[in-house]
């Protein structure tokens, strides 16, 4: 958990202080809601900003990455490119 504090201006005082908390929490998506797997140190009705990153086990993501890797290999590992390597060697 990281606590970030900053001031917009030294003369502006406490009222303009920016105080934010940043933390990573694993959660499960169920019935249209994200459910954190551990309690959050927040007061009720605190507004937050959420960024979502799927974790391993996401079959669609795994399939997409495998297909991307296959396509890149087709492009980068082909005999037609050997012509360019021969020209560069001269």
SSE order and pairing:
Blueprint: E1 2-7, E2 17-22, E3 27-30, E4 33-36, H1 59-76, H2 82-89
Antiparallel strand pairs: 1-2, 3-4
Walk me through this protein's architecture.
Helix content is 29%, strand content 22%. By secondary structure, the protein is of the alpha+beta class. It has two domains: 1-53, no CATH class; 55-90. The strands form two sheets. The protein has a two-stranded antiparallel sheet with strand order 1-2. Strand 3 (27-30) and strand 4 form a beta hairpin. The longest helix is centred in the C-terminal third of the chain and has 18 residues, at 59-76. The chain is elongated and about 70 Å long.
SS elements, strand count: 4
Order of helices and strands: EEEEHH
Q: Could you tell me the strand content as a percent range?
A: 15-25%
Tell me about the biggest sheet? 2 strands, antiparallel
Question: What labels describe this entry?
Answer:
single chain; 90 residues; alpha+beta; 2 domains; 29% helix
Describe what is shown at a glance.
The protein is built from two helices and four strands.
């Amino acid at each position: 958990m990281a606590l970030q504090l900053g001031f917009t201006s030294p003369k502006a005082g406490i009222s303009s202080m920016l105080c934010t908390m940043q933390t990573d929490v694993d959660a499960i998506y169920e019935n249209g809601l994200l459910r954190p797997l551990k309690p959050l140190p927040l007061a009720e009705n605190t507004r937050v900003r959420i960024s979502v990153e799927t974790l391993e086990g996401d079959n669609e993501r795994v399939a997409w990455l495998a297909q991307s890797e296959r396509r890149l290999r087709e492009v980068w590992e082909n005999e037609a490119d050997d012509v360019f390597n021969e020209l560069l060697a001269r």
